């Protein structure tokens, strides 16, 4: 997820440095691109869920799913990117016009990362997750600024790695879970420092990782269609979860089956869309 968010912020900051987007046209385009695939997914997901767990599908569940405030868990991602859609233009505006707001926002975002090690806000994480995730804007901005200076990025890697190790020690001392997913909703410094460390580590070896054409094509496919793949795999997971217990499917076979079916459905969707466009 940190890499997912980093890529979005990286592309936005690169584009805005060349030509700042018109806010309302940008907002409309982003909202449509985020909500339309989600509501298509929601339609098919609710049908699948009705056959798998009919007692779950209530009016409240459907309504909260539509509003992104509850219901299906997966809508937290859609809500997060709606937050980001508004926050990134504010971030770039503050960078150019108000250093006080820029660094005050940074202090709040970073402070929330550490606060969440010890304290959970008394409201749903969906309403507050935008603040700790905002730390990734600053890392992305810093990365772009020093992208060609490997010595500085190496120092940042050591810093984030030390943050990860120290926060792991704190979590252990407090008898808190050190499972990453348990520190993700909303993310704290333990989760984010791990993500940033891995991201930096990958960036140091990207020339070797992406030297193979097959690897490049694979990464390009999953990158280009990441949003739709995310929804497709969740529907398949919902259906397949019924059979994993009754058929005693091994986790690797389960993972492989979900992956293959997700890729197949994505290619099928591409095929259908191309045929409709050619008519």
Characterise this structure.
This protein is an all-alpha fold. The chain folds into 2 domains: 2-204, no CATH class; 205-279, no CATH class. The protein is 80% helix and 0% strand. The protein has helices spanning 2-18, 23-52, 59-67, 75-97, 99-118, 125-128, 130-133, 135-145, 150-173, 189-204, 206-209, 213-224, 226-246, 251-277. The longest helix is centred in the N-terminal third of the chain and has 30 residues, at 23-52. The chain is globular and about 50 Å long.
Which descriptors apply to this entry?
single chain, 279 residues, mainly alpha, 0% strand, globular
Give a brief outline of the structure:
The chain has 279 residues and is mainly α.
């Amino acid at each position: 997820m940190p890499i997912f968010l980093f890529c979005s912020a990286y592309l936005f900051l690169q584009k805005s440095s060349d030509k700042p987007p018109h806010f309302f046209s940008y907002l409309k385009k982003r909202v449509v691109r985020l909500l339309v695939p989600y509501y298509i997914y929601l339609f098919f997901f609710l049908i699948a869920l009705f056959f798998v767990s009919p007692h779950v599908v209530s009016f409240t569940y459907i309504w909260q799913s539509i509003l992104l405030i509850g219901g299906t868990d997966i809508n937290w991602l859609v809500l997060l990117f709606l937050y980001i859609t508004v926050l990134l233009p504010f971030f770039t505006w503050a960078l150019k016009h108000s250093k006080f707001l820029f660094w005050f926002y940074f202090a709040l975002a970073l402070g929330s990362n550490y606060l969440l090690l010890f304290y959970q806000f008394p409201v749903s994480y969906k309403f507050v997750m935008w603040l700790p995730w905002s730390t990734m804007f600053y890392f992305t901005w810093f990365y772009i600024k020093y992208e060609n200076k490997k010595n500085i990025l190496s120092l940042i890697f050591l810093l984030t790695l030390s943050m990860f190790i120290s926060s792991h020690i704190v979590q252990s001392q407090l008898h808190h879970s050190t499972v990453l997913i348990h520190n993700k909703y909303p993310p704290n410094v333990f989760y984010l420092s791990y993500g940033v460390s891995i991201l930096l580590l990958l960036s140091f070896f990207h020339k070797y990782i992406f030297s193979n054409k097959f690897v490049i094509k694979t990464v390009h496919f999953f990158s280009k269609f990441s949003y739709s793949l995310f929804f497709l795999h969740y529907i398949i997971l919902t259906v397949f979860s019924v059979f994993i217990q009754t058929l005693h499917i091994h986790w690797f076979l389960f993972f492989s089956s979900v992956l293959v079916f997700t890729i197949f459905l994505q290619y099928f969707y591409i095929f259908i869309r191309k045929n409709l466009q050619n008519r």
